[in-house]
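User: Can you help me understand a structure? I only have the sequence.
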Amino acid sequence: MFLVKVLLVTTIVATLTSDVSAIHCYQCASLGNKKCGEPFEAEDNMKYDCNKAAIPIYLQTYLPLGTFNATGCMTQTVEAPLGGGTHIIRSCYFGDTINTDNGCKLDPKSADSLDSCYVCTKDWCNGSSPMTQLGASILVLLALTQKMF
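Assistant: Let's start by predicting it. Here is the structure, written out as tokens:
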């Protein structure tokens, strides 16, 4: 019986962390839309099907051939040195969702500098802060564990 419970918990965790092929993300920039910043105020016109997104050309040199499909959602905090200040960009993510060094790169033609980059793998997951998502995931796992044991 204990083995069945362990297998069930493992399956749930694997399901929560697996990549999906058809991900939907918020796509916006706070410079053009203040609702895209923090606090985030979702609007229907910000929702985007990442299957329709093309990988940015500058990222193609960093990613292995054949990995040009979106693998997650991303929230970048960017510093614009030319008077733009700090702003937030929400978009589809391309690349390894564990090692995000390459996928989080900014366009080299941009004068902006990257302050932070948060990557997630659930539909619309780039609409809330990373800490909110982590807390919710932990609460779900704890509730499942309590009921099982």
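Now, to help you interpret it: The radius of gyration is 17 Å. Residues 19 and 127 are 18 Å apart (CA to CA). Let me know which part you'd like to focus on.
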